[in-house]
Amino acid sequence: MANAYRKFWDNLLNFSGTATRSEYWWPVIINYILGGLLIAIIQMIMGHPIEDIYNWSDLSVNTMSKLIALIVWLGTLSLKFRRLHDSDHTAWWILIDLVPLIGTIWFFILMVLPSRPNRWQ
C-alpha cells in the first residue's frame, strides 16, 4: 500500500509505462479519503466552506486547495494512462469516460482488468 502510494508521487508526470491494479487503486482510495478528511478539517477550523472567501487568509487557503487539487488531478491522470497501458490499451481510452454513464462504467471495467503483456513495457 505505502509502496504504491509512493510510486504515485514518484511518477507524478510519467504518462508512459505501466501501473498494476494495486498501483492504481491504492492511490485512488488513499487520495479520496485524505481529500475528504483534509477538507472537513480545514472547513471545521475556518468555520465555513473553503469556497467562501471573506478575507486574505481565506483566499490563500482557497488558492492552495485548488493548487493541491490540480497536482493530484495531474498525478491521477498520468496514473490512469499507465493503468490503461498495463491492460494493453492505448491512453486514448480515457476519453470513453466522457460518455455519460456507459462511459464511466466501461472505464471502471478497464481499470479492473488484469495486467497483460503489452507494448508499453
TrEMBL record:
It holds the Pfam family DUF805. Keywords: Membrane, Transmembrane, Transmembrane helix. The chain crosses the membrane at residues 24-47, 59-79, 91-113. The keyword Transmembrane helix applies. One of its GO terms (cellular component) is plasma membrane. InterPro entries: DUF805 (IPR008523). The keyword Transmembrane applies. This is DUF805 domain-containing protein.
